[in-house]
Amino acid sequence: MTTSPQTDIGIIVIGRNEGERLIRCLEALTGAGRKIVYVDSGSNDGSLDAAQARGAETIALDMSIPFTAARARNEGVARLKEIADPAYIQFIDGDCEMDPNWLTTASTFLDTHPDAAVACGRLRERFPDATLYNWLCDQEWNGPTGQVKACGGIAMIRSNAFVTIGGFNAQMIAGEEPELCVRLRAAGWDIWRLPDEMALHDAAMTRFGQWWRRARRGGFTYAEGAAMHGHPPERHKVGALRSALLWGAGVPMLTLLGLLISPLSLVLLLLWPLQVIRLARKGMGWTRASFLVIAKLPEALGAIQYFIARLRGQRTGLIEYKSGAST
Predict the structure, then answer these.
(1) Average pLDDT value for residue range 207-230
(2) Residues 91-122, buried b or exposed e (16+ Cβ, 10 A)?
(3) Dihedral sign of CA atoms 31, 37, 43, 46 in order
(4) What is the C-alpha separation between 303 and 183, in angstroms, rounded?
(5) Is the peptide bond before 195 cis (omega within 30 degrees of 0)?
(6) How far does Cα 109 stand from its chain's mean position?
(7) DSSP helix/strand/coil, 129
(8) C-alpha distances in angstroms, 59 versus 13, 37, 49?
(9) Among 123, 276, 288, 107, residue whose Cα is nearest residue 198
(10) The pLDDT of residue 323 is above 70
(11) How many Cβ atoms from other residues are within 10 Å of residue 24's Cβ?
(12) CA dihedral 244, 247, 253, 257 (to 10 degrees)
């Protein structure tokens, strides 16, 4: 099978108030006749004008409708389909910069692997040494390569596969990419993570509170994912949800209840450092192992937030960790 020309790749960029990061993102993508659609979610920094000046089709989302990145991406694809019919769609956030070789690498891989619906690669943090939280993100994104269960928000997807299964679930405030991959795999498609460089991401996390909110959002997605696809054989996010609730809610609650009987129950809290030791000895390092265990607390809170909202029949708004940004 011949290599797909880069004109057969459509690009969807989403963002809000990304400033220079958006300009850097778009300038790395322009050229070779690729159709670029930029979907803006309420920027007031001239992002729409900057995107138009760089040849992108633009969409200003109706912000009276609750925003999700999934809805933004879906609307971007709808506009892309009006102006082109590319074989592949590359999704990227406005705070990222695509590696110059990635589009060719990913499209060539999809050309030669007809059972693959998604190709993603190595996403790196642009400033991993700037803060501990940026470094943690970079470590998190360094996942195993080969055939995997899910991708993140930066990935190339086969257009016909994406459209056939109905695109992203626009109601999800996060975790829409793994949920999409569940449906793709159920339809017989494969998901691949390649060892190649894909993009740089500017997490811009400088405070513990940002990291905490991001972890809480993760717990929310575990609960929602398990509610949607937690049944066998998929068991989507069931293990992650169980871990969050066990370590982030179960151990603290059991300790508090035990204190009603004896102060010796405080010994239960030693389970946390023991878990850190176990993870560190698996090769994660002490810092990452410590934060993985601490993250169970906000993850449990996020999961509980989902359950409460579901019982009340309420829709939960975004859990954002970036000030002013939508990605």
Answers:
(1) 97
(2) bbbbbbbbbeebbbbbbebbbeeeebbbbbbb
(3) positive
(4) 22
(5) no
(6) 22
(7) coil
(8) 10, 8, 11
(9) 123
(10) no
(11) 19
(12) 150
Pairing of strands 146-148, 88-93: unpaired
Residue 216, both tokens: 């809480």
pTM over cut 0.90: yes
Q: What is the pLDDT of residues 99-108, one digit of tens each?
A: 999 999 999 9
Strands (E) across 7-79 are located at 9-15, 35-40, 57-60
Could you give all domains of the chain from N- to C-terminal order, each with its CATH number?
Answer: 6-204 (3.90.550.10), 225-312 (no CATH)
3-state secondary structure 132-198: HHHHHHHHHHCCCCEEECCCCCCEEEEHHHHHHCCCCCCCCCCCHHHHHHHHHHHCCCEEEEEEEEE
Distance CA 99, CA 282 (A): 31
Count other C-beta atoms under 10 Å from residue 316's C-beta: 17
Structure tokens at 44: 């007031």
Residue 60 tokens, joined:
């200003």
What whole-number distance in Å separates Cα of residue 125 and Cα of residue 146? 21
